[in-house]
Amino acid sequence: MKHRTFFWFILPTLSAMILFIALPIVSVFIQSLFVEHEQVLVVSESCGPFGCTPTTTVDTAATAALQEEQPLGRYNGLNTYINRSHLAFVEVGEAWRSTETFGAFWKQIINLPFYRALIFTLTYTAVVTPVVIALGLAIAVGVNNLPRILKGPSIFISLLPFLVTPLVGSLILFWMVDSDGVIGATIQRIFNDPSLSLKASTALTWTMLIVYGVWHTLPFSFITFYAGLQTVPEDTMEAAMIDGASKWQRMIHVVVPHLAPLMSFVTLMLLMDNFRVFEPIVSFKAEAHATSLSWIIYNDLRESGNPLYGSAGATSMMTIIGVVILLTPVLIRTWRDFNRKAH
Amino acid sequence: MATNAQSSIAVPAVNPKSRSRVPLLTVVSLALVALWLIIAAFPFFWTFWGSFKVQSDFFSKTDWQNAIYGVNTIRQTGSAFTLEGYQGAWVDEEFWRNVINSGIVVFFTVVISLTFGTLGGYALARSGRRYAFWLLMAALVFRAMPHITLVSGYLLPFFEWNIWGILPTTIIVLVAINQPFTLWMLHSFFLNIPKDMDESAMVDGCTRFQAFRHVIIPVMWPGVITTGLFSFLLAYNDFAVTAMLLSSENETIIPAINSFLGTTQVEGKVMYAVAAVVSATAPLFVLILFFQRQIVSGLTAGAVKG
Questions:
Q1: Mutate to test the interface with B, among A2, A8, A21, A155 (most CBs of B within 10 A)
Q2: B203-242 residues touching A, CB cutoff 8 A
Q3: I need a surface site. Which of A47, A214, A223, B261 has the fewest CB within 10 A?
Q4: Cβ-Cβ contacts under 8 Å for A333 (sequence gap 6 or more)
Q5: Which is more confident, A198 or A254?
Q6: Separation in Å, CA of A112 to nearest CA in chain B
Q7: Which residue of B has its CA nearest to A295?
Q8: Strand pairing partners for A35?
Q9: For the packed helices B270-305 and B23-50, what is the interaxial angle rounded to 10 degrees?
């Protein structure tokens, strides 16, 4: 295709992506270098019958004027990145010096907002992804063995948790695990503890979010593997059967290797989606026990009346770096494949 | 629904036991499927059923069976089913406004992203050059960006230009966020349409665009419909963008449900939110009912070939 023709065909989509994806990333970076203006304070003396007392008031007009003049705020360099709400170098160093055991150090780190969110995001991604792949494969094999008439309905039912809006899906589960909801109340009865609440403990909140994550993404891996199973070569399966391989051996030595490329695709997709876990934390109101990188950005931006653009920008930049690190192996491999094809 | 599936699945599980040497594996795998189907369907069924009850039945501490039989619902309204929740959500809280907003946003997002995406995807599929590859890689990285990171970049400029809070801004942002995925999907779809088709048209004297119009457009609809379904889902399900970029009177249904919870829980009107949640899920249910085949093929399109 000629360069010129290519250019005209790609122009609309490219300009949309440059304007609303590439430039915002630049804008996020610039924002992260600035911090909000301090309010302009005026000290005045108010004199009464008992003498004069100095009072400090906020000069709203001057503050607004300053805001108008420099909407970005004050230049702050990379300081936002290393302050307490982000990488917290000072606090981490302090914790490292003052604590004796690794456990105590860890306890201090996990109380810093950025590390708290990072640890939850990574744990969530690292637990949900492998569980979803293993269970998805098992269910795909199971559905593949069903009689034909049941396959369609099972796929229909399985699609529901995946396609439902994440916010809505997590709300539905949240109402069920509510201490008055069907699951929450039953658990209380089983353990005979009326104060037991899934929402009150950190460990249970994390479990609940991870269970939601598995419920929500399992259909994706199941359906991809199910489609892959339809393409398993019959000859190889029959050859393995003649050689006396049991069902389990055929599964491990024929089916799983055949699905290996699919697995890397599913892993990639799941990593990308799990890394941005966000809506369930809003729905479950879990922020007291679990926050994610996306959630702290959202929270900075929601800061009513005075959104912390600088802080949100810094977290966003670090999240983007995280995404790129996550994708690097894939990018390198695709690059090699492309070169191999080209030469 | 869930119990039906379970009982009918349980039957074949018993049969192979008599002849096969590995019944255990089969039984375990079928039990797993049955368990999964129950876990997948039960929450929806439960919430749908409960949305026609009063709050003291749906959240019943004393007896979970209340939510099934609606004991308190009968006591309070005289019938086992009540439309109070729906009435409250749709009429009192004016949920229909959000539904209209969602309709506008979703429709324009799908149409514009498909238009941009088909042109771009076609170009990428037919150009084997290095820059086409880099564009696809950039799109992959963009696809992985958490949407909220981009939103934090939009807010300040949008406030400055005074375009925050209105529907067109949100539509164009959703179109852009949707592009990476649309491009990848349509790119792999166009790769499957033989090159000879449009190239022979060009030999006959068509320009590239005429070849695209007269040869490619007539055969591209299956791929476009599949991609359109996923664009629909992205726009319909979005929370991060719509919650941050729309003013409260322009809210679409998903952020509306969220802000709904903030206001209703104080007044003890959780059932309004339950009814809204069921209303928001209904279109998705219908979508799966009619387009199951396309959704499945779309999910696996990039996968099975790559």
A1: A21
A2: 208-209, 212, 233, 236-237, 239-240
A3: A47
A4: none
A5: A254
A6: 20
A7: B148
A8: A74
A9: 140
Residue A22, Cβ density class (10 Å: 0-12 exposed, 13-18 middle, ≥19 buried): middle
**Whether the predicted pLDDT of A275 surpasses 70:** yes
- Average pLDDT score over residue span A86-92: 87
Q: What residues of chain B, 73 to 112, have a C-beta less than 8 Å from chain A?
A: none
Distance CA A10, CA B262 (A): 43
Confidence class for position B22, pLDDT limits 50, 70, 90: low
Triad B46, B50, B52: Cα angle to 5°: 140
The predicted-structure confidence for B203-252, as pLDDT tens digits, reads as follows 888 888 899 988 888 989 988 999 999 999 999 999 999 999 998 889 99
Count CB pairs under 8 A between chains A and B. 304
Residue B68 in 3-state DSSP?
helix
Check if A153 contacts B (Cβ < 8 Å).
yes
The model's pLDDT over A279-299, given as tens digits with 9 standing for 90+, comes to 999 988 888 899 999 999 999
Query: What tokens were used for B302?
Result: 């990039």
**Would you report the helix, strand and coil content of chain B in percent, each value rounded to 5?**
85, 0, 15
Decide if A281 touches B, using CB distance below 8 A.
Answer: no
Q: By three-state DSSP, how is residue B199 classified?
A: helix
User: What counts of helices (H) and strands (E) characterise chain A?
Assistant: 17, 4
**From the list A24, A186, A223, which residue is nearest B153 (CB)?**
A24
Break chain A down into helix, strand, coil percent, rounded to 5.
Answer: 70, 5, 20
Chain A residue with Cα closest to B23: A247
pLDDT in tens, A42-69: 777 777 677 777 777 777 777 777 777 7
C-alpha distance from B255 to closest chain A C-alpha (Å): 9
B306: confidence class by pLDDT, cuts 50, 70, 90: very low
A122 Cβ under 8 Å from any chain B Cβ: no
Give the global pTM: 0.87
The C-alpha R_g of chain A, in whole angstroms, comes to 27
For residue B2, pLDDT over 50 is answered with: no
Determine whether the interchain pair A138/B29 forms a contact, defined as Cβ–Cβ distance below 8 Å. yes
CA dist list (Å): B224 to A72, A166, B182, B203, B303: 42, 25, 9, 26, 17
The terminus-to-terminus CA distance of chain B in angstroms comes to 36
- The reply to whether residue B244 touches residue A181, judged by beta carbons under 8 angstroms, is no
